[in-house]
Amino acid sequence: MTEKFKRGDGRAIDELRQIEAKVGVVPNADGSAMYRSGDTIAIAAVYGPKKMHPQHQQDPSRGQLRCDYNMLSFSVSERIKPGKNRRAMEISEITKWALEPVLILDKYPNQVIDVFIDIIQADAGTRCAGINAASLALAHAGVPMKDMVSSIAVGKLDKTLVVDLTKEEEDFEEGEGPTDIPISMTHSGKITHMQLDGKISAEQLKDAVDLAKGACAKIYEIQKKALKDAVDFEGGK
């Protein structure tokens, strides 16, 4: 990694895009949040815990988490076909895997928590933005959690690792080509989800995880502030 590497938008290799986060953005939900990273915006809404229907899917030993990720057709410049596709179904499951380890679901036998994530504007990093929004929304809903989950994508532009890729960087084709590594982790540093699309050495993968830890620590502070601001606002009413 070299600090002299120049990115298209002028950021340092470990510099995040501008981030904004807030909770309480969907009034009729039990908990909700908006998370924006650069030009990528995710809205998450939580409903539950509530009784699982249909009844045959109930688990008498614990509650269940269901996640529904949806990239809206107007979220990108080239309109995409509305409705479920394989990618949306995959990211829905990935989101569940990333969040489930921190939820205390044994408090809710035969119940379900539904999380709906809509990407209303997309410029790469949508799954990570969705996970960050969903983690915030679950906390805002008062769902018991062992820790917060924060998520970031680390990429490799030819041989240089960078955090929080833009769409332009995701499409980088020079040298060794693009490598995209979405990573989700708790504030305590436990990785709950990691994917790898591309090629990377074992040594650089360790460096990528270190970069993700630093980035997720910054994201956690923004998530924590969003929750604190909401509590302060409610307390000031």
The helix content is 25-40%
Could you tell me the radius of gyration in angstroms? 18 Å
CATH class: Alpha Beta
Instruction: Specify the CATH architecture.
Output: 2-Layer Sandwich
Please outline the major beta sheet. 5 strands, mixed
Order of helices and strands: EEEEHEHEEHEEH
CATH homologous superfamily annotation:
GHMP Kinase, N-terminal domain
Shape: globular
Uncertain segments = none
User: Which fold name is given in CATH as the topology?
Assistant: Ribosomal Protein S5, domain 2
| Helix/strand class | alpha+beta
How many structural domains can be distinguished in the coordinates?
A: 1
Tally of individual helices? 4
Physical arrangement of strands within the biggest beta sheet:
1-2-3-5-4
Please state the average pLDDT score: 90
Could you give the count of β-strands?
Answer: 9
Beta fraction = 25-35%
